[in-house]
Design brief:
five-stranded parallel beta sheet, 53% strand, single chain, six-stranded parallel beta sheet, 116 residues
Length: 116
């Protein structure tokens, strides 16, 4: 899965607020422990996880046509992922969630390890 070269790097433990039509990446070797607001009226946002996103108290809510992509070497450990209209959740790596749900038509693909 190719990450766009202009993807904005995410690291540390900050609160990220996404912008429409942008891509974001947690790079390989990086552990991100913050939050990402991906349900703020934006669309066509892509979040790629090559490293690790660990925040066991955070519930990710993906807005309209936004997507989360976990690469083969990537991992996420969150409370839940909720996907709203369209968009998708694609996991080739490791995803540990207490809950996964959708509120509308969406795409879920799992070629990795999914614990939910």
């Amino acid at each position: 899965m190719a990450v766009p070269i202009d993807a904005i790097e995410i690291s540390g433990n900050s609160a990220i607020v996404v912008q429409a039509n942008k891509s974001y990446v947690i790079k390989s070797g990086v552990t991100f422990t913050g939050t990402i607001d991906a349900n703020n009226g934006t669309s066509n946002v892509k979040i790629y996880v090559q490293g690790s996103w660990k925040n066991t108290s955070f519930e990710l809510n993906l807005g309209n046509n936004n997507g989360l992509y976990v690469t083969q070497a990537g991992s996420i450990d969150l409370v839940s992922v909720t996907q709203n209209t369209v968009g998708g959740f694609v996991n080739y790596g490791s995803a540990s969630l207490a809950k996964i749900e959708t509120t509308n038509n969406t795409l879920y693909v799992n070629y990795g390890t999914l614990t939910a």
